[in-house]
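thread: overnight batch results

M.L. [08:02]
morning all. the overnight job finished for the chain we discussed friday. pasting input first so we're all looking at the same thing
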Amino acid sequence: EPLACDVTQEGACRSAVAQAISSLGGLDALVYASGVSPLCLLDEAGQADWRAVLDVNLIGASLCTAAALDALRTSHGRALYVGSYSERQTLPGIGLYSVSKSALSALIEAWRMEHPEVDFTKVVLGNTSDTEFAAGWGRERTLAISKLWVERGLFPAPKLMPLANAAEAICALLALRGHVDEIGVMPRLRDAEVET
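M.L. [08:03]
and the structure it wrote out:
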């Protein structure tokens, strides 16, 4: 049964993790896949935009990890965080997101250094379909920014990885008994969905 959690609230993170541990009888893994971003250029972004992105994409990850740490130590478990290809190649309009994902990489490394008894893994996902990530962007704004990406050769074809492929990769990593620092999973042309 899914648990709702507002990752911007420390108490909610602790409560959700405690409920999961109680329901499952322990915790072998934490998957942090939360991510938000407005579709705006950096000069349009205000303090509220920055705080909203960092609260979810960075601070929420640390709050959930802290809440799960004891259980992950006990199980010799893994904390897995969903990163983004945008950390490697940012695009106009999602700079806030890219910065937050770069900060997430530093956070993961800090957790690794402080708690080597737990595996901390980052999976970098390419553009993935069927998520709520861009739900609030609005069609006109999305088309205008996407046009900018294509014109600049930054996003030459709208290749999207099916969400099921991303989930399969995450499940495979969780089943793996070995250290995985970081791995990238990108859409293949033969698997890609093209949105028009």
